[in-house]
């Protein structure tokens, strides 16, 4: 593979005009597609194989024309102190508001609170339910404006009015912190390279890659029902890996220049060596993201595939556009150590341009003047001298950070998790005050009596059975369809939607439905947003172990091929589990317990989003393997070239620690930039990924990995001979390029060295 990528790098360097033209054309094409595409609708949130989804599908079949997936709004009214909603003036204001709401072109129906018994017992709070023909993301701005104007007119008349539901749902905003994250990445790149030109290349290529990826997602959003969150997550991951992959190739290019190679040759060797690591690191991320399909939740699958596509684009751009831009940059990209940084003034000749750490294992006594050991060398030397102490300290630290994860509570966000400054949250609180905590999460019970001898009796039996269950505050009479074979029953719990008591009630209704079906032949199903949330959480929990086995197993096999070792991939997987558990602990501490919530902009604590653990496992595993591949391949490269195991660890850090540190800081900055998002899901994922990268890069890869390798010694690189013969030689270390150089032949023409 190294030789193939070497050829690709040299070709891109020579044909830079053609390569740049292709990528600019793709960016333009994607941009035009995004600009001309219809606006994205609301992504269909279906969970195949669950009872809630089965009931939802049955409703669409048996109750046609009711716009089951249309947006809803609850306009909640509260009377001034000392008055009630039944007072003549207040009642007239509400009725006028209802009439105004009914005039909208996209309105399917409006329920008058006085006709629908939607006034609280004390008479101080009432609500009007509005049903729309289209989903919240598809509503026209004029319809949303009409809803807000109607509410404002009622406020002007003296009532307190708030609006809940998904009708006011908006595309989430990421905030200014995203720009700050990119700015931090730019500063880190400038410090790392000491050159504005060299620092600008990773940023430029990452932005082009993300532009192509996000524009493509936008262009296909309507056709594939991709939600707005999909493009934000693709941008988040695409920016992070795009900058990192380009960073590693540019850094290796500068190191090759410092070895005295010509620029085209240096570009080829940078892509052949660092590019090989980029390919395999990208593959692990893609495997982890595409593997989300095993959960069988279409929304999560689409998010994973879209993000994986952006990662694939980042890999291709790093392998082709980076060498092309290096050709344009010419001498403006200096060799490592040039411009007086660490090496003093750049001097002519090969020796003067050599980077830190090249040469003898000790990094000293080489012609041309070798600098003192860098920070990475000193740290690695300390770790290999005291590996057991470093290992124990790292494991204990991560274990302590993971303790809050034992209290993890899962749920999906609703209006109750919104900031108190939003009208949705205030409407939620008013409804809880007037009608009880469970009113914001009613359960929809669907009774399919098509196979029952007496459907009406079956409907009554179900209703009576539910009334006798614990945790039920109210049950509406059965509402049959036109054919009389299906009925809906609304059940209001006496606990809030995200509580354990409500979850127990859902299971109790389902258990009772099984007995009723045996007696009457009528099937009882429970759906609604609350039941959907419960089913999603259970489905995600059930899928976590199979997902771990699939993703970690495939990546484990891939890393065996890369490192030609059993213990190194095993150590990589175990280290990942430590970092992801610690990251989940931090998420629980901030978003569930409220630690540092003000600093993170978390206005309301509550359960952790249900898909957070499995999504974090997928993304963090892929990103963790990035650092594993980039850092450990340099160690293996030194080991296979004859260095002793401990010295190979030091050499790997000498070459890679500075760049890996920069890459981790950049990735953390990019992810942390999304903490400013108005969408709680994006905010939580941004924080979780940022802290996970910190734990994995600086504790696991920088401390635990060298400590374990030092303790294992040569055993770390052990591979059974039969397996060594069976595995393909992908040559990530660029051994084929080195062999060709020693022969004096040109790798670009030496067919014997081509290994793919």
Q: What shape does the CA trace take?
A: elongated
Rg result: 30 Å
- For the record, give the distance between the C-alpha atoms at the N and C termini, rounded to a whole number: 4 Å
| Low-pLDDT ranges | 339-371, 748-756
Mean pLDDT: 81
Domains (count): 3
- DSSP summary, beta strand count: 11
**Helix/strand-derived class?**
alpha+beta
**Distinct helical segment count:** 23
Which homologous superfamily in CATH is the superfamily of the largest domain? Multidrug efflux transporter AcrB transmembrane domain
The portion of residues forming beta strands comes to: 5-15%
Work out the oligomeric state of the chains in this entry.
single chain
Largest sheet: 5 strands, antiparallel
CATH class of the largest domain: Mainly Alpha
Tell me which CATH architecture of the largest domain applies here: Up-down Bundle
Residue share in helix: 55-70%
What name is given to the CATH topology of the largest domain? Multidrug efflux transporter AcrB transmembrane fold
């Amino acid at each position: 593979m190294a030789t193939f990528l070497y050829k690709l790098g040299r070709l891109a360097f020579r044909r830079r005009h053609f390569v740049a033209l292709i990528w600019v054309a793709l960016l333009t094409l994607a941009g035009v597609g995004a600009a001309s595409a219809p606006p994205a609708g609301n992504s269909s949130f279906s969970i195949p194989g669950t009872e809630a989804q089965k009931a939802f599908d049955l409703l669409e079949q048996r109750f046609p024309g009711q716009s089951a997936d249309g947006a809803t709004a609850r306009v909640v009214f509260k009377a001034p102190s000392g008055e009630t909603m039944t007072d003549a003036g207040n009642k007239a204001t509400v009725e006028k508001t209802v009439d105004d709401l009914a005039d909208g072109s996209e309105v399917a129906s409006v329920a008058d609170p006085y006709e629908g018994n939607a006034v609280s017992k004390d008479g101080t709070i009432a609500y009007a339910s509005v049903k729309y023909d289209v989903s919240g993301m598809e509503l026209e701005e004029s319809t949303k404006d009409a809803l807000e104007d109607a509410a404002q007119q009622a406020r002007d008349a003296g009532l307190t009015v708030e609006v809940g539901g998904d009708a006011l749902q908006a595309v989430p905003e990421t905030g200014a912190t995203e720009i700050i994250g990119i700015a931090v990445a730019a500063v880190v790149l400038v410090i790392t390279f000491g050159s504005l030109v060299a620092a600008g290349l990773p940023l430029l290529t990452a932005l082009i890659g993300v532009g192509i990826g996000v524009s493509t997602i936008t262009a296909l959003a309507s056709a594939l029902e991709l939600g707005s969150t999909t493009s934000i997550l693709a941008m988040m991951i695409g920016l992070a890996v795009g900058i990192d992959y380009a960073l590693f190739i540019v850094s290796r290019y500068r190191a090759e220049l410092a070895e005295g190679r010509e620029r085209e040759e240096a570009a080829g060797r940078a892509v052949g060596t660092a590019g090989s690591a980029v390919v395999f690191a990208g593959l692990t991320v893609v495997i982890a993201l595409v593997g989300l399909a095993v959960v069988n939740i279409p929304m999560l699958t689409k998010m994973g595939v879209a993000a994986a596509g952006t990662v694939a684009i980042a890999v291709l751009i790093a392998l082709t556009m980076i060498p092309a831009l290096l050709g344009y940059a010419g001498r403006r990209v200096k060799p490592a150590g040039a411009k007086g940084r660490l090496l003093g003034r750049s001097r002519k000749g090969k020796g003067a341009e050599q980077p830190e750490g090249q040469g003898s294992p000790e990094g000293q006594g080489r012609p041309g003047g070798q600098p003192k050991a860098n920070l990475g060398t000193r740290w690695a030397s300390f770790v290999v001298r005291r590996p057991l102490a470093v290992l124990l300290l790292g494991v204990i630290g991560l274990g302590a950070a993971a303790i809050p994860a034992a209290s993890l509570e899962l749920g999906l966000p609703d209006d109750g998790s919104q900031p108190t400054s939003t009208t949705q949250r205030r409407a939620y609180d008013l409804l809880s005050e007037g009608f009880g905590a469970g009113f914001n999460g009613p359960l929809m019970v669907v009774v399919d009596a098509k196979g029952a001898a007496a459907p009406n009796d079956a409907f009554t039996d179900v209703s009576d059975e539910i009334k006798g269950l614990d945790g039920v505050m109210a049950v509406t009479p059965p509402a049959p369809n036109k054919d009389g074979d299906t009925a809906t029953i609304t059940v209001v719990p006496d606990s809030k939607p995200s509580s354990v008591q409500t979850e127990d009630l859902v299971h109790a209704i389902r258990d009772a439905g099984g007995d009723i079906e045996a007696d009457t032949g009528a099937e009882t199903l429970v759906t609604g947003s609350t039941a959907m949330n419960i089913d999603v959480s259970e489905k995600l929990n059930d899928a976590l172990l199979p997902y771990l086995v699939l993703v970690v197993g495939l990546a484990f096999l891939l890393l065996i091929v890369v490192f030609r070792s059993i213990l190194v991939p095993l150590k990589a997987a175990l280290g990942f589990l430590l970092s992801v558990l610690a990251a989940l602990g931090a998420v629980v501490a901030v978003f569930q317990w409220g630690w540092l919530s003000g600093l993170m902009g978390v206005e309301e604590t509550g359960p952790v989003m249900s898909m957070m653990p499995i999504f974090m496992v997928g993304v963090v595993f892929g990103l963790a393997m990035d650092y594993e591949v980039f850092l450990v391949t340099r160690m293996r490269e030194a080991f296979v070239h004859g260095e002793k195991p401990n010295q190979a660890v030091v050499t790997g850090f000498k070459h890679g620690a500075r760049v890996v540190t920069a890459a981790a800081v950049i990735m953390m900055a990019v992810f942390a930039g999304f903490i400013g998002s108005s969408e709680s899901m994006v905010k939580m994922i941004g924080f979780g990924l940022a802290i996970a990268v910190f734990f994995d890069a600086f504790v696991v890869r920088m401390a635990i990995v060298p400590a374990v390798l030092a303790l294992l010694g040569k055993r770390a690189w052990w591979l059974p001979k039969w397996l060594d013969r069976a595995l393909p030689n992908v040559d990530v270390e660029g051994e084929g390029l080195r062999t060709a150089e020693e022969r004096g032949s040109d790798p670009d023409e030496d067919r014997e060295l081509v290994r793919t």
